## 1
Amino acid sequence: MHHQGEENGFPDSTGDPLSDLSKDESCKENCTCSSCVLRAPTISDLLNDQDLLDVIRIKLDPCHPTIKNWRNFASKWGMPYDELCFLEQRPQSPTLEFLLRNSQRPVGQLMELCRLYHRADVEKVLHRWVDEEWPKRGRGDHPRNF
Protein backbone atom coordinates (compact mmCIF):
# COMPACT_ATOMS: atom_id res chain seq x y z
CA MET A 1 0.00 0.00 0.00
CA HIS A 2 2.78 2.40 0.85
CA HIS A 3 4.33 1.66 -2.56
CA GLN A 4 1.06 2.56 -4.31
CA GLY A 5 0.98 5.86 -2.46
CA GLU A 6 4.47 6.69 -3.71
CA GLU A 7 3.49 5.93 -7.29
CA ASN A 8 0.41 8.13 -7.00
CA GLY A 9 2.60 10.95 -5.78
CA PHE A 10 4.64 11.08 -8.99
CA PRO A 11 2.28 11.13 -11.99
CA ASP A 12 3.43 14.54 -13.22
CA SER A 13 7.14 13.85 -12.93
CA THR A 14 7.07 10.83 -15.24
CA GLY A 15 5.62 12.60 -18.28
CA ASP A 16 7.18 16.03 -18.67
CA PRO A 17 10.90 15.70 -17.87
CA LEU A 18 11.38 12.76 -20.23
CA SER A 19 9.83 14.51 -23.20
CA ASP A 20 11.69 17.73 -22.41
CA LEU A 21 14.99 15.86 -22.10
CA SER A 22 14.71 14.11 -25.44
CA LYS A 23 13.68 17.33 -27.17
CA ASP A 24 16.58 19.28 -25.64
CA GLU A 25 19.14 16.64 -26.59
CA SER A 26 18.11 16.57 -30.25
CA CYS A 27 18.17 20.36 -30.41
CA LYS A 28 21.63 20.64 -28.84
CA GLU A 29 23.16 17.90 -30.99
CA ASN A 30 21.71 18.60 -34.40
CA CYS A 31 19.03 21.27 -34.51
CA THR A 32 17.21 21.38 -37.83
CA CYS A 33 13.92 23.18 -38.15
CA SER A 34 11.96 20.10 -39.20
CA SER A 35 13.33 18.09 -36.26
CA CYS A 36 12.48 20.80 -33.75
CA VAL A 37 8.98 21.45 -35.05
CA LEU A 38 8.08 17.76 -35.34
CA ARG A 39 9.17 14.70 -33.42
CA ALA A 40 12.62 13.88 -34.76
CA PRO A 41 12.32 10.77 -36.94
CA THR A 42 14.00 7.57 -35.85
CA ILE A 43 15.47 4.87 -38.06
CA SER A 44 12.34 2.78 -37.40
CA ASP A 45 10.36 5.54 -39.14
CA LEU A 46 12.45 5.35 -42.29
CA LEU A 47 12.15 1.54 -42.26
CA ASN A 48 8.50 2.10 -43.24
CA ASP A 49 9.55 3.75 -46.52
CA GLN A 50 10.45 0.94 -48.92
CA ASP A 51 11.65 3.27 -51.70
CA LEU A 52 14.04 5.04 -49.34
CA LEU A 53 15.28 1.72 -47.95
CA ASP A 54 15.99 0.43 -51.44
CA VAL A 55 18.09 3.50 -52.24
CA ILE A 56 20.04 3.27 -48.97
CA ARG A 57 20.66 -0.47 -49.48
CA ILE A 58 21.90 0.09 -53.05
CA LYS A 59 24.32 2.70 -51.74
CA LEU A 60 25.55 0.98 -48.55
CA ASP A 61 25.39 -2.78 -49.30
CA PRO A 62 28.22 -3.01 -51.87
CA CYS A 63 31.73 -3.65 -50.66
CA HIS A 64 34.34 -1.31 -52.17
CA PRO A 65 37.93 -0.99 -50.98
CA THR A 66 37.83 2.82 -50.85
CA ILE A 67 34.17 3.62 -50.14
CA LYS A 68 32.74 3.32 -46.64
CA ASN A 69 29.66 1.12 -46.38
CA TRP A 70 27.25 -0.48 -43.89
CA ARG A 71 30.14 -2.31 -42.24
CA ASN A 72 31.90 0.92 -41.23
CA PHE A 73 28.63 2.37 -39.93
CA ALA A 74 27.82 -0.75 -37.89
CA SER A 75 31.33 -0.98 -36.49
CA LYS A 76 31.24 2.67 -35.43
CA TRP A 77 28.00 2.00 -33.54
CA GLY A 78 29.59 -0.90 -31.68
CA MET A 79 28.68 -4.02 -33.66
CA PRO A 80 31.25 -6.74 -32.86
CA TYR A 81 33.46 -8.14 -35.63
CA ASP A 82 31.88 -11.61 -35.44
CA GLU A 83 28.43 -10.13 -35.93
CA LEU A 84 29.64 -8.08 -38.92
CA CYS A 85 30.95 -11.27 -40.52
CA PHE A 86 27.70 -13.08 -39.71
CA LEU A 87 25.59 -10.37 -41.38
CA GLU A 88 27.78 -10.49 -44.49
CA GLN A 89 27.00 -14.20 -44.92
CA ARG A 90 23.23 -13.82 -44.63
CA PRO A 91 21.05 -13.55 -47.75
CA GLN A 92 19.25 -10.46 -46.40
CA SER A 93 20.71 -7.00 -46.97
CA PRO A 94 23.36 -6.27 -44.32
CA THR A 95 22.37 -2.60 -44.45
CA LEU A 96 18.78 -3.51 -43.60
CA GLU A 97 19.97 -5.72 -40.71
CA PHE A 98 22.17 -2.89 -39.41
CA LEU A 99 19.26 -0.43 -39.58
CA LEU A 100 16.87 -2.86 -37.86
CA ARG A 101 19.32 -3.33 -34.99
CA ASN A 102 19.61 0.44 -34.56
CA SER A 103 15.98 1.30 -35.22
CA GLN A 104 15.54 3.43 -32.09
CA ARG A 105 18.35 5.83 -32.98
CA PRO A 106 17.42 9.19 -34.51
CA VAL A 107 17.90 9.59 -38.26
CA GLY A 108 20.10 12.58 -37.39
CA GLN A 109 22.70 10.22 -35.92
CA LEU A 110 22.71 8.21 -39.14
CA MET A 111 23.26 11.45 -41.06
CA GLU A 112 26.20 12.22 -38.76
CA LEU A 113 27.75 8.85 -39.69
CA CYS A 114 27.29 9.78 -43.35
CA ARG A 115 29.24 13.00 -42.76
CA LEU A 116 31.93 11.18 -40.77
CA TYR A 117 32.48 8.67 -43.57
CA HIS A 118 32.11 11.18 -46.42
CA ARG A 119 28.93 9.57 -47.73
CA ALA A 120 27.30 12.78 -48.95
CA ASP A 121 25.25 10.72 -51.41
CA VAL A 122 23.48 8.87 -48.58
CA GLU A 123 23.26 11.96 -46.39
CA LYS A 124 21.56 13.85 -49.21
CA VAL A 125 18.91 11.12 -49.60
CA LEU A 126 18.28 11.08 -45.83
CA HIS A 127 18.17 14.87 -45.63
CA ARG A 128 15.60 15.05 -48.41
CA TRP A 129 13.49 12.40 -46.65
CA VAL A 130 13.63 14.25 -43.30
CA ASP A 131 12.78 17.61 -44.88
CA GLU A 132 10.19 16.53 -47.45
CA GLU A 133 8.75 13.07 -46.77
CA TRP A 134 8.80 12.85 -42.97
CA PRO A 135 6.64 15.96 -42.36
CA LYS A 136 3.99 14.55 -44.75
CA ARG A 137 3.83 11.20 -42.98
CA GLY A 138 2.97 11.73 -39.38
CA ARG A 139 2.90 15.42 -38.60
CA GLY A 140 4.94 14.44 -35.56
CA ASP A 141 2.62 11.62 -34.46
CA HIS A 142 3.77 8.05 -34.42
CA PRO A 143 2.74 6.56 -37.76
CA ARG A 144 1.60 2.96 -37.77
CA ASN A 145 4.42 0.67 -36.79
CA PHE A 146 4.24 -1.96 -39.56
## 2
Amino acid sequence: MMSDVEYLRSLLTEYADFPKPGIGFLDIFPILRNPLAFESLITHFVHHILSQTIPKSVLKKVDIVVGLDARGFLLGPIIALRLGAAFVPVRKKGKLPGPCVSVSYEKEYGVDVFEMQSGVIQRGQNVVVVDDLIATGGSAKAAGQLVEMQGGTVLEYLFLIEIMMSRDWQYDKAPIYSIIQYS
Protein backbone atom coordinates (compact mmCIF):
# COMPACT_ATOMS: atom_id res chain seq x y z
CA MET A 1 0.00 0.00 0.00
CA MET A 2 1.27 3.45 -0.95
CA SER A 3 1.40 6.31 1.59
CA ASP A 4 -0.22 9.64 0.76
CA VAL A 5 3.23 11.17 0.24
CA GLU A 6 4.30 8.41 -2.16
CA TYR A 7 0.98 8.72 -3.99
CA LEU A 8 1.34 12.50 -4.42
CA ARG A 9 4.96 12.14 -5.51
CA SER A 10 3.98 9.57 -8.14
CA LEU A 11 1.64 12.08 -9.79
CA LEU A 12 4.16 14.92 -10.17
CA THR A 13 5.47 15.43 -13.69
CA GLU A 14 8.93 16.89 -14.31
CA TYR A 15 9.72 19.01 -17.37
CA ALA A 16 13.35 19.74 -18.20
CA ASP A 17 14.43 23.20 -19.35
CA PHE A 18 11.20 24.94 -18.38
CA PRO A 19 10.59 27.85 -18.08
CA LYS A 20 14.15 28.32 -19.35
CA PRO A 21 17.19 26.15 -20.07
CA GLY A 22 18.72 24.55 -16.99
CA ILE A 23 15.54 24.73 -14.92
CA GLY A 24 13.62 21.56 -14.07
CA PHE A 25 9.91 22.28 -13.57
CA LEU A 26 7.77 20.06 -11.32
CA ASP A 27 4.14 20.18 -12.46
CA ILE A 28 1.59 19.84 -9.65
CA PHE A 29 -1.43 20.04 -11.95
CA PRO A 30 -1.80 16.24 -12.29
CA ILE A 31 -2.56 16.26 -8.54
CA LEU A 32 -5.20 18.95 -8.94
CA ARG A 33 -6.81 17.11 -11.87
CA ASN A 34 -7.28 14.03 -9.68
CA PRO A 35 -9.96 14.63 -7.01
CA LEU A 36 -8.65 11.87 -4.71
CA ALA A 37 -5.09 13.18 -4.95
CA PHE A 38 -6.18 16.79 -4.41
CA GLU A 39 -8.22 15.76 -1.35
CA SER A 40 -5.23 13.78 -0.03
CA LEU A 41 -3.01 16.85 -0.43
CA ILE A 42 -5.39 19.22 1.36
CA THR A 43 -6.11 16.67 4.11
CA HIS A 44 -2.37 16.13 4.64
CA PHE A 45 -1.78 19.88 5.09
CA VAL A 46 -4.79 20.34 7.39
CA HIS A 47 -3.84 17.33 9.52
CA HIS A 48 -0.28 18.67 9.86
CA ILE A 49 -1.54 22.12 10.91
CA LEU A 50 -4.04 20.70 13.41
CA SER A 51 -1.68 18.12 14.92
CA GLN A 52 1.69 19.89 14.76
CA THR A 53 1.47 23.63 14.03
CA ILE A 54 -1.46 24.72 16.21
CA PRO A 55 -0.48 22.74 19.34
CA LYS A 56 2.94 24.45 19.31
CA SER A 57 1.45 27.95 19.00
CA VAL A 58 0.75 30.17 22.00
CA LEU A 59 -2.82 31.09 20.97
CA LYS A 60 -3.63 27.57 19.66
CA LYS A 61 -5.16 28.80 16.39
CA VAL A 62 -4.49 29.95 12.85
CA ASP A 63 -6.20 33.22 11.95
CA ILE A 64 -4.98 33.62 8.38
CA VAL A 65 -3.64 31.46 5.58
CA VAL A 66 -1.45 33.46 3.20
CA GLY A 67 -1.13 32.04 -0.31
CA LEU A 68 1.67 33.02 -2.66
CA ASP A 69 1.12 34.06 -6.27
CA ALA A 70 -0.07 31.96 -8.03
CA ARG A 71 -0.23 28.28 -7.07
CA GLY A 72 -0.60 29.20 -3.40
CA PHE A 73 -4.00 30.57 -4.48
CA LEU A 74 -5.06 27.03 -5.44
CA LEU A 75 -4.20 25.54 -2.05
CA GLY A 76 -4.56 28.38 0.45
CA PRO A 77 -8.30 29.15 0.25
CA ILE A 78 -9.28 25.49 0.72
CA ILE A 79 -6.94 25.08 3.70
CA ALA A 80 -8.21 28.36 5.19
CA LEU A 81 -11.82 27.25 4.80
CA ARG A 82 -11.11 23.92 6.52
CA LEU A 83 -9.42 25.76 9.42
CA GLY A 84 -12.07 28.45 9.78
CA ALA A 85 -9.40 31.02 8.91
CA ALA A 86 -9.25 33.93 6.48
CA PHE A 87 -7.32 33.74 3.21
CA VAL A 88 -4.96 36.54 2.17
CA PRO A 89 -3.18 36.56 -1.20
CA VAL A 90 0.35 37.79 -1.80
CA ARG A 91 0.69 38.97 -5.38
CA LYS A 92 3.25 40.40 -7.73
CA LYS A 93 3.49 44.19 -7.80
CA GLY A 94 0.57 46.03 -9.34
CA LYS A 95 -1.95 43.17 -9.20
CA LEU A 96 -3.83 44.11 -6.01
CA PRO A 97 -6.21 47.10 -5.66
CA GLY A 98 -5.95 49.71 -2.95
CA PRO A 99 -3.08 50.53 -0.61
CA CYS A 100 -0.48 47.78 -0.35
CA VAL A 101 2.73 46.98 1.52
CA SER A 102 5.53 45.64 -0.63
CA VAL A 103 8.90 43.96 -0.42
CA SER A 104 11.43 42.99 -3.09
CA TYR A 105 13.11 39.59 -3.19
CA GLU A 106 15.53 37.59 -5.29
CA LYS A 107 14.24 34.65 -7.30
CA GLU A 108 16.09 31.82 -9.02
CA TYR A 109 16.17 33.96 -12.16
CA GLY A 110 15.93 37.64 -11.16
CA VAL A 111 14.44 40.15 -8.70
CA ASP A 112 10.71 40.59 -8.11
CA VAL A 113 8.34 42.49 -5.80
CA PHE A 114 5.53 40.97 -3.73
CA GLU A 115 2.61 42.95 -2.33
CA MET A 116 -0.15 42.43 0.21
CA GLN A 117 -3.09 44.73 0.77
CA SER A 118 -2.62 47.01 3.78
CA GLY A 119 -4.61 46.26 6.91
CA VAL A 120 -5.55 42.65 6.05
CA ILE A 121 -3.55 41.24 8.96
CA GLN A 122 -4.01 42.61 12.46
CA ARG A 123 -1.31 42.80 15.12
CA GLY A 124 -0.94 39.46 16.89
CA GLN A 125 -2.75 37.32 14.33
CA ASN A 126 -1.32 33.87 13.62
CA VAL A 127 -0.50 33.10 10.01
CA VAL A 128 0.59 30.10 7.97
CA VAL A 129 2.11 30.72 4.53
CA VAL A 130 1.32 28.23 1.75
CA ASP A 131 2.80 27.65 -1.69
CA ASP A 132 3.41 24.73 -4.00
CA LEU A 133 7.20 24.75 -3.98
CA ILE A 134 10.19 26.21 -2.16
CA ALA A 135 13.51 26.43 -3.96
CA THR A 136 15.73 29.30 -2.82
CA GLY A 137 13.18 30.59 -0.31
CA GLY A 138 13.14 34.17 -1.59
CA SER A 139 9.39 34.37 -2.14
CA ALA A 140 8.65 32.70 1.22
CA LYS A 141 10.93 35.12 3.02
CA ALA A 142 9.25 38.06 1.28
CA ALA A 143 5.79 36.81 2.30
CA GLY A 144 6.98 36.47 5.89
CA GLN A 145 8.27 40.02 5.83
CA LEU A 146 4.89 41.27 4.55
CA VAL A 147 3.10 39.43 7.38
CA GLU A 148 5.48 40.90 9.97
CA MET A 149 5.18 44.41 8.50
CA GLN A 150 1.47 44.25 9.36
CA GLY A 151 2.03 42.85 12.86
CA GLY A 152 1.21 39.19 12.20
CA THR A 153 3.19 36.16 13.35
CA VAL A 154 4.14 33.42 10.89
CA LEU A 155 3.66 30.08 12.63
CA GLU A 156 4.92 27.97 9.73
CA TYR A 157 5.68 27.88 6.01
CA LEU A 158 3.96 25.00 4.18
CA PHE A 159 4.96 23.61 0.79
CA LEU A 160 3.99 20.61 -1.28
CA ILE A 161 7.56 20.36 -2.64
CA GLU A 162 10.94 21.42 -1.29
CA ILE A 163 13.96 21.45 -3.57
CA MET A 164 16.67 20.43 -1.11
CA MET A 165 20.09 22.07 -1.20
CA SER A 166 18.88 24.99 -3.31
CA ARG A 167 17.42 26.98 -0.42
CA ASP A 168 19.97 29.54 0.72
CA TRP A 169 17.72 30.98 3.40
CA GLN A 170 16.75 29.62 6.79
CA TYR A 171 13.96 31.41 8.57
CA ASP A 172 14.70 31.31 12.27
CA LYS A 173 11.30 32.57 13.43
CA ALA A 174 9.10 29.87 11.89
CA PRO A 175 9.70 26.34 10.63
CA ILE A 176 9.34 25.12 7.07
CA TYR A 177 7.25 22.03 6.40
CA SER A 178 7.28 20.28 3.04
CA ILE A 179 5.42 17.12 2.07
CA ILE A 180 7.81 16.03 -0.70
CA GLN A 181 11.55 16.67 -0.77
CA TYR A 182 13.58 16.60 -3.98
CA SER A 183 17.38 16.64 -4.10
## 3
Amino acid sequence: MRVLRVSQALVRSFSSTARNRFENRVAEKQKIFQADNDLPVHLKGGATDSILYRLTMGLCLGGTVYSLYFLSWASFPQKK
Protein backbone atom coordinates (compact mmCIF):
# COMPACT_ATOMS: atom_id res chain seq x y z
CA MET A 1 0.00 0.00 0.00
CA ARG A 2 2.87 2.34 0.79
CA VAL A 3 4.41 1.79 -2.65
CA LEU A 4 1.12 2.81 -4.25
CA ARG A 5 1.05 6.08 -2.28
CA VAL A 6 4.63 6.89 -3.21
CA SER A 7 4.04 6.21 -6.91
CA GLN A 8 0.88 8.35 -6.90
CA ALA A 9 2.78 11.20 -5.25
CA LEU A 10 5.53 10.99 -7.87
CA VAL A 11 3.04 10.94 -10.73
CA ARG A 12 1.22 13.96 -9.33
CA SER A 13 4.41 15.95 -8.82
CA PHE A 14 5.74 15.23 -12.31
CA SER A 15 2.48 15.74 -14.13
CA SER A 16 1.61 18.99 -12.39
CA THR A 17 5.00 20.67 -12.89
CA ALA A 18 5.36 19.89 -16.59
CA ARG A 19 2.25 21.84 -17.56
CA ASN A 20 3.37 25.04 -15.87
CA ARG A 21 6.82 25.28 -17.46
CA PHE A 22 5.77 25.96 -21.03
CA GLU A 23 3.85 28.95 -22.22
CA ASN A 24 1.37 28.80 -25.06
CA ARG A 25 3.02 30.15 -28.22
CA VAL A 26 0.47 28.95 -30.76
CA ALA A 27 -0.63 32.50 -31.61
CA GLU A 28 2.96 33.51 -32.43
CA LYS A 29 3.46 30.48 -34.68
CA GLN A 30 0.14 31.13 -36.42
CA LYS A 31 1.23 34.67 -37.28
CA ILE A 32 4.50 33.39 -38.74
CA PHE A 33 2.96 30.63 -40.83
CA GLN A 34 -0.06 32.63 -42.02
CA ALA A 35 1.97 35.63 -43.16
CA ASP A 36 1.74 36.34 -46.90
CA ASN A 37 5.43 36.46 -47.83
CA ASP A 38 5.45 34.17 -50.90
CA LEU A 39 7.39 31.41 -49.14
CA PRO A 40 6.30 27.79 -49.15
CA VAL A 41 5.04 26.58 -45.80
CA HIS A 42 7.97 24.20 -45.31
CA LEU A 43 10.40 27.15 -45.37
CA LYS A 44 8.50 29.70 -43.27
CA GLY A 45 10.19 28.58 -40.05
CA GLY A 46 13.45 30.31 -40.93
CA ALA A 47 17.02 29.06 -41.25
CA THR A 48 16.38 25.84 -39.33
CA ASP A 49 13.65 24.81 -41.75
CA SER A 50 15.85 25.65 -44.71
CA ILE A 51 18.72 23.54 -43.35
CA LEU A 52 16.41 20.61 -42.59
CA TYR A 53 14.83 20.87 -46.05
CA ARG A 54 18.20 20.84 -47.82
CA LEU A 55 19.48 18.00 -45.64
CA THR A 56 16.39 15.93 -46.42
CA MET A 57 16.68 16.61 -50.15
CA GLY A 58 20.38 15.70 -50.08
CA LEU A 59 19.71 12.44 -48.27
CA CYS A 60 16.92 11.56 -50.70
CA LEU A 61 19.11 12.30 -53.70
CA GLY A 62 22.04 10.36 -52.22
CA GLY A 63 19.82 7.37 -51.42
CA THR A 64 18.37 7.39 -54.92
CA VAL A 65 21.82 7.46 -56.54
CA TYR A 66 23.04 4.74 -54.15
CA SER A 67 20.09 2.46 -54.91
CA LEU A 68 20.37 3.00 -58.68
CA TYR A 69 24.09 2.21 -58.56
CA PHE A 70 23.55 -1.08 -56.74
CA LEU A 71 20.59 -1.95 -58.91
CA SER A 72 22.77 -1.57 -61.99
CA TRP A 73 25.59 -3.48 -60.27
CA ALA A 74 23.25 -6.37 -59.41
CA SER A 75 21.65 -6.50 -62.86
CA PHE A 76 24.89 -7.40 -64.64
CA PRO A 77 26.53 -10.68 -63.56
CA GLN A 78 30.16 -10.68 -62.56
CA LYS A 79 32.54 -12.34 -65.02
CA LYS A 80 34.67 -15.14 -63.60
## 4
Amino acid sequence: MALPCLQRAELTLFFAAFLCGALAAAALTRTQASFSGSCPLYGVAHLNRSSFALSRGSDLSLCYFVAGASGLLALYCLLLLLFWVYSSCIEDSQRGRTGLRIALAISAIAIFLVLVSACVLRFGTHSLCNSIISQNTTISCYEAQKVPWTPPGTALHFYSNLHNAENSSWVNLVLWCVILVLQVIQLKSETASYPSLQRGYPEWSSETGLLVGSQLSQS
Protein backbone atom coordinates (compact mmCIF):
# COMPACT_ATOMS: atom_id res chain seq x y z
CA MET A 1 0.00 0.00 0.00
CA ALA A 2 1.37 3.41 -0.99
CA LEU A 3 1.44 5.90 1.86
CA PRO A 4 -0.19 9.33 1.43
CA CYS A 5 2.07 12.11 0.20
CA LEU A 6 1.95 14.05 3.48
CA GLN A 7 2.78 10.97 5.49
CA ARG A 8 5.72 10.18 3.24
CA ALA A 9 7.01 13.71 3.78
CA GLU A 10 6.50 13.21 7.52
CA LEU A 11 8.54 10.01 7.48
CA THR A 12 11.34 11.77 5.58
CA LEU A 13 11.42 14.38 8.34
CA PHE A 14 11.45 11.61 10.95
CA PHE A 15 14.57 10.18 9.30
CA ALA A 16 16.25 13.59 9.46
CA ALA A 17 15.15 13.97 13.11
CA PHE A 18 16.65 10.56 13.87
CA LEU A 19 20.02 11.67 12.48
CA CYS A 20 19.95 14.96 14.40
CA GLY A 21 18.96 13.33 17.68
CA ALA A 22 21.58 10.60 17.35
CA LEU A 23 24.27 13.16 16.51
CA ALA A 24 23.38 15.38 19.47
CA ALA A 25 23.37 12.47 21.92
CA ALA A 26 26.65 11.06 20.58
CA ALA A 27 28.43 14.44 20.57
CA LEU A 28 27.45 15.25 24.17
CA THR A 29 28.33 11.74 25.38
CA ARG A 30 31.72 11.99 23.69
CA THR A 31 32.34 15.37 25.33
CA GLN A 32 31.38 14.06 28.76
CA ALA A 33 33.70 11.10 28.29
CA SER A 34 36.57 13.44 27.41
CA PHE A 35 36.08 15.14 30.79
CA SER A 36 36.39 11.78 32.59
CA GLY A 37 32.63 11.50 33.06
CA SER A 38 32.06 15.00 34.44
CA CYS A 39 29.34 17.14 32.88
CA PRO A 40 31.01 20.24 31.39
CA LEU A 41 27.77 22.18 30.85
CA TYR A 42 27.67 25.18 33.20
CA GLY A 43 31.08 24.02 34.42
CA VAL A 44 33.93 26.17 35.71
CA ALA A 45 37.47 25.88 34.34
CA HIS A 46 40.59 27.26 35.98
CA LEU A 47 44.16 27.73 34.82
CA ASN A 48 46.69 25.41 36.42
CA ARG A 49 50.08 26.86 35.44
CA SER A 50 49.99 26.52 31.64
CA SER A 51 47.09 24.10 31.34
CA PHE A 52 43.35 24.22 31.93
CA ALA A 53 41.38 21.96 34.24
CA LEU A 54 37.69 21.56 34.91
CA SER A 55 37.45 22.55 38.56
CA ARG A 56 33.69 22.14 38.84
CA GLY A 57 31.21 20.43 36.60
CA SER A 58 27.45 20.52 36.75
CA ASP A 59 25.21 17.76 38.02
CA LEU A 60 25.51 14.60 35.94
CA SER A 61 21.74 14.41 35.57
CA LEU A 62 21.87 17.52 33.35
CA CYS A 63 24.01 15.82 30.70
CA TYR A 64 22.07 12.59 31.14
CA PHE A 65 18.80 14.44 30.49
CA VAL A 66 20.02 16.10 27.29
CA ALA A 67 21.69 12.98 25.91
CA GLY A 68 18.84 10.73 27.06
CA ALA A 69 16.09 12.92 25.57
CA SER A 70 17.92 13.21 22.26
CA GLY A 71 18.68 9.50 22.17
CA LEU A 72 15.16 8.38 23.07
CA LEU A 73 13.57 10.65 20.46
CA ALA A 74 16.04 9.34 17.87
CA LEU A 75 15.08 5.77 18.82
CA TYR A 76 11.37 6.65 18.55
CA CYS A 77 11.93 8.06 15.05
CA LEU A 78 13.82 4.94 13.99
CA LEU A 79 11.16 2.55 15.31
CA LEU A 80 8.40 4.59 13.69
CA LEU A 81 10.22 4.51 10.36
CA LEU A 82 10.67 0.76 10.54
CA PHE A 83 7.01 0.25 11.47
CA TRP A 84 5.64 2.25 8.55
CA VAL A 85 8.07 0.73 6.08
CA TYR A 86 6.91 -2.70 7.22
CA SER A 87 3.25 -1.66 7.14
CA SER A 88 3.48 -0.17 3.66
CA CYS A 89 5.24 -3.24 2.27
CA ILE A 90 3.53 -6.11 4.10
CA GLU A 91 0.29 -5.00 5.72
CA ASP A 92 -2.53 -2.69 4.70
CA SER A 93 -2.30 -0.42 7.73
CA GLN A 94 -3.75 3.07 7.89
CA ARG A 95 -3.49 5.73 10.58
CA GLY A 96 -6.85 7.01 11.72
CA ARG A 97 -7.82 10.05 13.72
CA THR A 98 -6.96 8.40 17.03
CA GLY A 99 -3.49 7.52 15.79
CA LEU A 100 -2.98 11.08 14.56
CA ARG A 101 -4.02 12.52 17.92
CA ILE A 102 -1.52 10.27 19.70
CA ALA A 103 1.17 11.28 17.21
CA LEU A 104 0.35 14.95 17.80
CA ALA A 105 0.70 14.54 21.56
CA ILE A 106 4.06 12.78 21.16
CA SER A 107 5.28 15.49 18.77
CA ALA A 108 4.30 18.24 21.21
CA ILE A 109 6.23 16.50 24.00
CA ALA A 110 9.19 16.02 21.66
CA ILE A 111 9.24 19.73 20.79
CA PHE A 112 9.31 20.62 24.48
CA LEU A 113 12.14 18.18 25.22
CA VAL A 114 14.24 19.27 22.25
CA LEU A 115 13.71 22.95 23.07
CA VAL A 116 14.84 22.44 26.67
CA SER A 117 17.84 20.37 25.52
CA ALA A 118 18.90 23.00 22.97
CA CYS A 119 18.64 25.79 25.55
CA VAL A 120 20.66 23.78 28.09
CA LEU A 121 23.36 23.13 25.49
CA ARG A 122 23.38 26.77 24.41
CA PHE A 123 23.61 28.41 27.82
CA GLY A 124 25.65 25.60 29.40
CA THR A 125 28.33 25.87 26.72
CA HIS A 126 28.28 29.67 26.95
CA SER A 127 28.81 29.51 30.73
CA LEU A 128 31.76 27.12 30.37
CA CYS A 129 33.35 29.28 27.67
CA ASN A 130 32.98 32.42 29.80
CA SER A 131 34.92 30.77 32.61
CA ILE A 132 37.67 29.77 30.14
CA ILE A 133 37.94 33.18 28.48
CA SER A 134 38.02 34.93 31.87
CA GLN A 135 41.44 33.33 32.48
CA ASN A 136 42.85 35.69 29.83
CA THR A 137 44.95 33.01 28.15
CA THR A 138 42.76 32.48 25.09
CA ILE A 139 40.36 34.63 23.13
CA SER A 140 37.77 31.97 22.33
CA CYS A 141 36.51 28.61 23.44
CA TYR A 142 37.53 27.15 20.09
CA GLU A 143 41.14 28.19 20.68
CA ALA A 144 40.98 26.65 24.16
CA GLN A 145 40.82 23.23 22.52
CA LYS A 146 44.45 23.72 21.44
CA VAL A 147 45.61 24.51 24.98
CA PRO A 148 46.79 21.58 27.15
CA TRP A 149 44.30 20.35 29.74
CA THR A 150 44.85 18.48 32.98
CA PRO A 151 44.86 15.49 33.12
CA PRO A 152 46.39 14.96 29.66
CA GLY A 153 43.85 13.98 27.01
CA THR A 154 41.02 15.85 28.72
CA ALA A 155 38.63 18.04 26.72
CA LEU A 156 39.55 16.74 23.27
CA HIS A 157 37.50 18.75 20.76
CA PHE A 158 35.08 19.63 23.56
CA TYR A 159 33.85 22.89 21.99
CA SER A 160 33.39 21.39 18.52
CA ASN A 161 31.39 18.52 20.00
CA LEU A 162 29.21 20.80 22.13
CA HIS A 163 28.71 23.14 19.18
CA ASN A 164 27.66 20.23 16.95
CA ALA A 165 25.28 18.95 19.63
CA GLU A 166 23.68 22.37 19.98
CA ASN A 167 23.29 22.90 16.23
CA SER A 168 21.82 19.42 15.84
CA SER A 169 19.30 20.16 18.58
CA TRP A 170 18.15 23.42 16.96
CA VAL A 171 17.77 21.70 13.59
CA ASN A 172 15.93 18.87 15.33
CA LEU A 173 13.56 21.42 16.89
CA VAL A 174 12.70 22.84 13.47
CA LEU A 175 12.12 19.34 12.09
CA TRP A 176 9.75 18.42 14.91
CA CYS A 177 7.80 21.67 14.42
CA VAL A 178 7.36 20.88 10.72
CA ILE A 179 6.31 17.33 11.62
CA LEU A 180 3.69 18.74 14.00
CA VAL A 181 2.34 21.02 11.27
CA LEU A 182 2.06 18.10 8.83
CA GLN A 183 0.23 16.02 11.43
CA VAL A 184 -2.22 18.87 12.11
CA ILE A 185 -2.94 19.15 8.37
CA GLN A 186 -3.54 15.40 8.15
CA LEU A 187 -5.84 15.46 11.17
CA LYS A 188 -7.88 18.32 9.71
CA SER A 189 -8.12 16.43 6.44
CA GLU A 190 -9.32 13.31 8.25
CA THR A 191 -11.84 15.33 10.28
CA ALA A 192 -13.16 17.06 7.17
CA SER A 193 -13.67 13.78 5.33
CA TYR A 194 -15.41 12.09 8.29
CA PRO A 195 -18.71 14.08 8.16
CA SER A 196 -19.03 13.39 4.43
CA LEU A 197 -18.78 9.69 5.17
CA GLN A 198 -21.41 10.05 7.87
CA ARG A 199 -23.74 11.83 5.49
CA GLY A 200 -23.34 8.98 3.05
CA TYR A 201 -24.61 6.32 5.47
CA PRO A 202 -28.24 7.53 5.77
CA GLU A 203 -28.59 7.64 1.97
CA TRP A 204 -27.24 4.12 1.76
CA SER A 205 -29.57 3.01 4.55
CA SER A 206 -32.63 4.57 2.86
CA GLU A 207 -31.80 2.94 -0.47
CA THR A 208 -31.36 -0.39 1.29
CA GLY A 209 -34.67 0.08 3.07
CA LEU A 210 -36.47 0.76 -0.19
CA LEU A 211 -35.01 -2.37 -1.74
CA VAL A 212 -35.98 -4.51 1.23
CA GLY A 213 -39.43 -2.96 1.34
CA SER A 214 -40.07 -3.60 -2.35
CA GLN A 215 -38.98 -7.21 -2.00
CA LEU A 216 -41.35 -7.71 0.94
CA SER A 217 -44.29 -6.19 -0.94
CA GLN A 218 -43.61 -8.41 -3.95
CA SER A 219 -43.59 -11.51 -1.75
